[in-house]
């Protein structure tokens, strides 16, 4: 990764004004890496504009500078130098790409194994738990002085993408980085309470509705829930209110794969996967046009909810049978 970061330094050195963008419907790592990268670049003397197609989830509004992340329609410039964070492919940037100049150069920094290396320069580390883990190393390599807002952003990304340091991607390196950030003086317990323990009434209403649809295969290895478009419209749910719902299916004793099927419009179903050990759901999602990690991934299915359930459950069942041979 050192050579990749040297190339990234050269990229940043060439630029005067950088556009920093992460994936649409941003999670904790996407928001945190955007803010951390922007602060780092400003400390290096660069002008920075941050954009995201989607609104920032309310639970991340405590992060310093979050109000500066703009939706693309509020930005008039075209940018030749773009830093893409936590995006497995260019499509994940959504309509932020409308701000790219014709001769755009992209620095792609990501940790997804399914990343297709769409950048001019690619810093892709599938072994990293989060994109902020890569940024931590970059900050250290460049000897950029830590401050509380920068440390808080990095810590928030680590915390959320490891599920509160519970997922299998919680490496010793992640824990050493977290310890270093706590030593700087960040309020780790307050961050955890805000991003992991606080919920909205809409999120609870969605969970209540999803659990009513809960089903399992006869062997108990797959569990799934479904949300219809009218459910989401009735509850008036925001995208971030769906965060973590799929885990309730996977967390059932004996279940290896949990799935959430969610209608986003007629003939379009968003599918979220979580797995325990046997199925690489990142590979399954990628074969369906999506992506992610071995234990957490997603895709979009064109068709009815019933068609999505039938085809995807069949595909996951086939993967389990292959694993069992």
Automatic annotation (TrEMBL):
| InterPro entries xref list | DDH_dom, DHH_sf, DHHA1_dom, Oligoribo/pAp-PDE_c-di-AMP_PDE
Q: Which Pfam families match?
A: DHH, DHHA1
Q: Which residues form the DHHA1 domain?
A: 237-320
- Domain DDH: residue ranges: 19-157
Q: Which GO terms describe its molecular function?
A: nucleic acid binding
Top-level division of the source organism's lineage:
Bacteria
This chain belongs to which protein, by name? Bifunctional oligoribonuclease/PAP phosphatase NrnA
Organism, per UniProt? Answer: Paenactinomyces guangxiensis
């Amino acid at each position: 990764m050192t050579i990749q970061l040297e190339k990234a330094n050269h990229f940043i050195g060439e630029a005067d004004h950088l556009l920093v963008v992460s994936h649409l419907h941003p999670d904790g790592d996407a928001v945190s890496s955007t803010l951390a990268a922007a602060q780092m670049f400003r400390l290096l003397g660069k002008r920075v504009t941050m954009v995201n197609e989607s609104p920032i989830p309310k639970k991340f509004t405590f992060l310093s500078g979050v109000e500066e992340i703009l939706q693309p329609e509020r930005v008039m410039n075209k940018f030749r130098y773009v830093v893409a964070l936590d995006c497995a492919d260019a499509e994940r940037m959504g309509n932020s790409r409308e701000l790219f100049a014709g001769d755009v150069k992209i620095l792609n920094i990501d940790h997804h194994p399914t990343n297709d290396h769409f950048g001019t320069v690619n810093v892709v580390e599938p072994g990293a738990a989060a994109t902020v883990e890569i940024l931590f190393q970059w900050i250290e390599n460049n000897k950029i002085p830590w401050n509380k807002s920068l440390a808080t952003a990095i810590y928030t990304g680590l915390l959320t993408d490891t599920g509160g340091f519970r997922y299998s991607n919680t490496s010793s390196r992640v824990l050493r980085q977290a310890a270093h950030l706590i030593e700087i003086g960040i309020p780790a317990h307050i961050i955890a309470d805000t991003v992991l323990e606080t919920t909205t009434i809409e999120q609870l209403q969605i969970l209540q509705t999803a659990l009513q649809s809960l089903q399992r295969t006869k062997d108990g290895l797959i569990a799934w829930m479904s949300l219809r478009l009218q459910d989401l419209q009735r509850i008036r749910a925001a995208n971030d209110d769906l965060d973590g719902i799929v885990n309730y299916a996977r967390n059932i004793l004996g279940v290896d794969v949990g799935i959430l099927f969610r209608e986003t419009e007629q003939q379009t179903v968003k599918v979220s996967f979580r797995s325990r050990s046997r199925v690489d759901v990142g590979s399954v999602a990628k074969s369906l046009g999506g992506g992610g990690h071995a234990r957490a991934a997603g895709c979009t299915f064109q068709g009815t909810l019933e068609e999505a359930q039938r085809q995807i459950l069949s595909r996951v069942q086939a993967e389990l049978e292959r694993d069992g041979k």
